[in-house]
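Subject — a protein and its fold
Fields — amino acid sequence, structure tokens
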Amino acid sequence: FAGAATGVWTFRTNHCIDGRPWNYRRLAECVRELRLIQECYAGDFYPLTEWSVSEKEWIAWQFDYPEKDKGLVQIFRREDSPFVSAEFALSGLDKDASYRLYDLDDGDMGTFTGKELMKGRLYTVAEKPAAKIIIYAKVK
């Protein structure tokens, strides 16, 4: 997903990538995911780690959309990271509210208070390199 809240795909006239046909089902899933999260990019941006280009370091950031009581976290475990988990403290949440977390790859992660999420929570990414998108919404 591009930061401009658009999906970026290049279609070739033969509808192949490196000799393999396009997986249109996966493309449709990506478009659904994009529509689910794209308005969050208009929210507040919080870096959750220091910026680094090191292949040993994780990097993560958060887009919080307070007007809609939701947001997303993007987490990147890089190729040479020896750690399968990292702790990130979210920002901008209501400490007294509850938030439901959902990993776009692995599904429901449970409900946590804003206070818990802002204190810090451990996130696990088994593969490397890998990226995770976790969405959250305030429980009404």
